[in-house]
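INFO batch 0412 | record 1 of 1 | parsing
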Amino acid sequence: MKKGQASIEFVIIVFIVILFVFTTTKPLLENAKGLTEDIATITRANNETKKLGNTVMEISMLGAGSKKTIELNVPKNAVVHCYQDRNIGFTVELQVPPYPEDCNNGICDKNIITAKSFNGTSPVDCNSELVNIRGQRTIEVKKIEGTQNISIK
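INFO prediction complete | emitting C-alpha cells
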C-alpha cells in the first residue's frame, strides 16, 4: 500500500464519519430545541396563570373594594383564559411532537383556579373582553363591593 493511497482512504473514512455524525445529530438537536421551547412556553404560561390566580386568591381574602393591578406577559402559542364558568386556566399549542400524555393533539389545557379553590363556589367574575388573554396585558383584580365576587378587568 502506498502512502498516498493510505492518506486518501483516511480522508474518505473521516469524511464518512463526519457526514454520519452530522446527519444523525442535527435532526436530534433541532427536535430537542423544539421540545425545550414547548416546555418553556408551558412553564411561562403556567407561571402567568398562577400569578393571576394568586392575585384572585389574595383579593378574595381582603375587604370589599380591594384591588390589585398586575402585568401579565403571556408567551406566543399560549392563552390565559378567564372562563365564563368562573375558572382560570391556560392553553398552550405545542409545536413539536411527541406530545405529553396530558396534551390532546398538541393542545395542553390546565385550570388553575376552580370552584374547588373557594370551597365550592368561585367568586371570579370574568369580564367578557378578558376571556382570552394573549401577549402583554395589564389586569385589574378587584373585589366588588357588597358581594363576595371578584372582578377581573
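INFO post-check: The chain has one helix and eight strands.
INFO record closed
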